[in-house]
Fold each of these.
Amino acid sequence: MTEPRPQHPTQDLTAAEQLAADQQAGALTQAPAAPAQDFDYLIVGAGFAGSVLAERLAASGQRVLIVDRRSHIGGNAYDCYDDAGVLIHPYGPHIFHTNSKDVFDYLSQFTEWRPYQHRVKANVDGQLVPMPINLDTVNQLYGLSLTSFELEDFFASVAEPVEQVRTSEDVVVSRVGRDLYQKFFRGYTRKQWGLDPSELDASVTARVPTRTNRDDRYFADVYQAMPLHGYTRMFQNMLSSPNIKLMLNTDYREIVDVIPWRHMIYTGPVDAFFDHCYGALPYRSLEFRHETHDAEYLLPVGTVNYPNDYAYTRVSEFKHITGQRHHQTSVVYEFPRAEGDPYYPVPRPENAELYKRYEALADARPDVTFVGRLATYRYYNMDQVVAQALATFRRLNSAAAGDPQGSEQAEQS
Ligand SMILES: Cc1cc2nc3c(=O)[nH]c(=O)nc-3n(C[C@H](O)[C@H](O)[C@H](O)COP(=O)(O)OP(=O)(O)OC[C@H]3O[C@@H](n4cnc5c(N)ncnc54)[C@H](O)[C@@H]3O)c2cc1C
């Protein structure tokens, strides 16, 4: 760990600096001096990455200051009640799923769960069909009555041979052929990423499986559940330790030189940390249109995808996802955007190259640890971010205990 950062109160004070200066002046002239707030950790961002680390470090006796420039905790997983009293996800639907018992057990300390298996339908050729593509999708779409075995042969007959699967287009056409690719993936990917699937890493469409059975669950993970009282309540429980102080509506730059800390954990965009010195890393953003309707339900399932029509990619209905009973219902439409809050790192080889340059800068900062989706420029789900944060905690802990071997093992886990 490094020494606390020096303070440099001068002209041009920010509000936080002014406050600290006033408090210091007051302490000198009026009240007996209060002990300085000396934090072991300054954590930037109160999403999954920051909150897991705050909780773990606080539980091990460290004093933590966690700041977020937004007005709430939870990062993109934040949920709240809208004007109608429906529990919504302002940053788009967040469905929890994981194969990691460790991650599930860890989060279970802070929430009870409601079992929930997400289902998605795609609006294709005027029909609502199951997505990911399964036996019913193909039979319904083409008016067939294939069995699972016959569907395997069907896919083999329409699949296009691809010598080396490199792009998102390669992944799909080599598995289910061009027609299904065009109906389900091409338009959706173009809308979502502003790029043709032939220009995107294979990893993007490889996330979506193809099934020959009738399983219509969107995810196949062992653990699929939603926090019973919502994500925000779970985050509140994680951050409830007296060792944790929370500052909202605060960009870390406002306080970084004012409040003493020993080590920083940064979970914001890595390029912003280094003032975009190599240029901006490309992120994809979204605009959300939230609506409330006087109906019990609007959609047959949690999400309906629109691969080919309209400017939005999908519509999601929260009551399916949260299980809330209410006489009205709230939905969200997602409109992909090039500009706006950074949501999705864009997986392309040249972006990975650019990230490597920022990663080298990050590696040269022993006083700062970079964790999370934006700080490590990875297309991570919530459970992967939790796993990454838990591994980071083990590494920090081992390093503090002077056990480099332990820290290496934690790095690999
Ligand atoms: C539309 C959408 C849908 C998703 N759906 C799912 C899903 O269904 N299932 C799933 O598992 N995952 C989903 N994800 C992914 C999930 O949101 C992320 O894995 C998770 O939120 C990442 O957590 P994080 O802590 O790394 O980042 P974030 O949640 O982005 O938190 C980072 C925080 O840092 C703060 N910050 C940044 N810069 C500063 C600064 N300078 N000063 C102070 N604070 C700062 C930000 O305000 C933010 O609150 C979805 C993501 C999106 C965008």
Note: The longest helix spans residues 168-193.
Amino acid sequence: MNTSSKPRVLVLGAGFGGLELTSLLSETFGAGIDVTLIDKSDGFVFGFSKLDVMFGHKTADQVRLPYSNYAKPGVRLLRQTVTAIDPERRRVTTDAGVHEADFLVVALGADYDFDATPGLAGANEFYTVAGAERLRDVLPTFTRGRALVGVCGAPYKCPPAPSECALMLHDYLVKRGVREACEINFVLPLPSPVPPSPETSRALVSAFVERNIGFIPGRRVASIDNARKVAILDDGVKMQFDLFLGVPKHRVPDVVIASGMTENGWITVNPRTLETNYAGVYAVGDGANTGTPKAGVFAEGAARAVASDLIVKLSNSGTAKQYDGFGTCYIEFGGGRIGKVEVDFFSGPKPTGTYHEASLALRADKEHFGSSRRARWFGM
Ligand SMILES: Cc1cc2nc3c(=O)[nH]c(=O)nc-3n(C[C@H](O)[C@H](O)[C@H](O)COP(=O)(O)OP(=O)(O)OC[C@H]3O[C@@H](n4cnc5c(N)ncnc54)[C@H](O)[C@@H]3O)c2cc1C
């Protein structure tokens, strides 16, 4: 029973989507709203920071933004693990109790399905902070032989990230004077590095060619034989490696699957309003099937649309702004240069992308992308 007169909004997951949504609600309603934000972790880490950790540019502690620094009027952030979601009743069970709400937003992101790729659990991956930390310790021991950057399934988070990994690995090996003794190959299930932007894909493929990085598009790593150091692709081709750098297959967290909100593995939503099939229940970010990429910038755009809808509903005025499916991604090309692609998923009959050539100057834009969110969400 709602004993408070304030509208209750329950947001599951304090990642890109949850942090942006709760910040917007707090900015609009202040203490006039009762928002509960739940996350099982003790802090937020930008996805791109995992590459910094892996290549030893920063430590995991340096890139972690502790939730203890998150303080917004009207919002309570609770460190709890969501164990069950009842979307019909907007009722959520955690390891600490039960929460009910007038509006429920599922922003629990995507999990990794290690079991989907036999052998992956015994190999290296760079999509978790723990995996990036392990690779930071393994990379200095790699001085000769074959490195394989292998993606085990699509969709996966941040389409350009594995390309960035291959290019940054090249730089790392050059800097250590061992590049000549090493081979780099890159297996990607997509037909090109950034399908909505042929220009960006061309720039990345040229960068691979210039750096002698073997690029195998349209293939995924189906299994790994760690004893023989062989990756088997989905067409049966076997690739030897001495160092494997993997991207696991993605899926929604088990608790979301058990809630019955998914179809074909992802949460069904109206792509423009992010409403699910359940009244008063929305889903944003990597777990929601909007047709846009699994990236923070898109999670944030979807969160803005949900915030707009809630603000209109709760203030009984205005018209909600729909999700525009637009996002800007920054891409590490190596040598400190950053490329930028602006992708628009909904305006035309098919997605389009505008590429901005990689330059040293664009690094400031990428840094601003991170620092502006850090300041806005965590005041630091
Ligand atoms: C290597 C790499 C590079 C990337 N680079 C970029 C980039 O440059 N730009 C970009 O925009 N995106 C990038 N991304 C993608 C980006 O990190 C994600 O797409 C984004 O974080 C998704 O936001 P989200 O809100 O959907 O989920 P998340 O940010 O993943 O947040 C989900 C939250 O839910 C919590 N959670 C999950 N299950 C439970 C549970 N049962 N109980 C309680 N809490 C739970 C998690 O702890 C997490 O905090 C990158 C990702 C990677 C891995």
Note: The two ends are 37 Å apart (CA to CA).
